[in-house]
Amino acid sequence: MTLKLELADTDNAPRQNEQARMKQTHSKYPNVPCLIAHWFGTGFLPKAPGTWGSLATLPLAYCLMWIGGFSLLLICIPILFLLGTWASVIILKRLKNPSQKDPSSIVIDEVVGQLIALLPAGLDWRLWLLAFILFRFFDIVKIWPACWVERNMGGSTRQDAIGIMLDDVVAGVYSALIVIGIACIW
């Protein structure tokens, strides 16, 4: 019995040492980049994390539009772009597989792209639905230059993170332009 306990303790020792080493190597606030990049855990939801990230953006966008309108939403987009790039750089450095340039769990790019798509929608629920559907379509299909950005931005962790963010910015711009066109017709 004693031998088994000693073996069990010996087996746990490497894992405990690894956890202690991880705590020492992380920054003072190790969860902040994870919260931002994975948008408060939505990037870890099963099946279609990008869609979950886009859906999780809608309450934020509504609050921003209700409190400060178009202007506040417009101010928040570059701030979230910069925060998302910073968080993505950190998450990409922590990954064990550096060849994975755009992990599906990083959804801050969907947040920024969805906010861009919602810019011209005001508070009209029909335009919000249209913006959501269009953004998901363009994010999945990756029409040029989004496909170019996704393929060619890379070579360093910072460039990979910018590429992660920019292809969704392009999808958001495409969506916003169509929403503007539809809004003019309505």
Distinctive features:
mainly alpha, 186 residues, single chain
Structural class: mainly alpha
The number of domains? 1
Helix content: over 70%
Main sheet record: none
Distance between the termini: 78 Å
Q: Please mark out the parts with pLDDT under 50 across 5 or more consecutive residues, or reply none.
A: 1-29
The string of secondary-structure elements, in order, is HHHHHHH
Compile the SSE list and pairings.
Elements: H1 2-25, H2 31-37, H3 49-94, H4 108-118, H5 125-141, H6 146-152, H7 157-185
Structure in words:
The protein is mainly alpha-helical and 186 residues long. It has one domain (16-185). 76% of the residues lie in helices and 0% in strands. It is built from seven helices and no strands. Helix 2 (31-37) runs antiparallel to helix 3 (49-94), helix 4 (108-118) packs across helix 5 and helix 6 runs antiparallel to helix 7 (157-185). The chain is globular, with a radius of gyration of 20 Å. The chain starts with a helix and ends with a helix. 37% of the residues are buried.
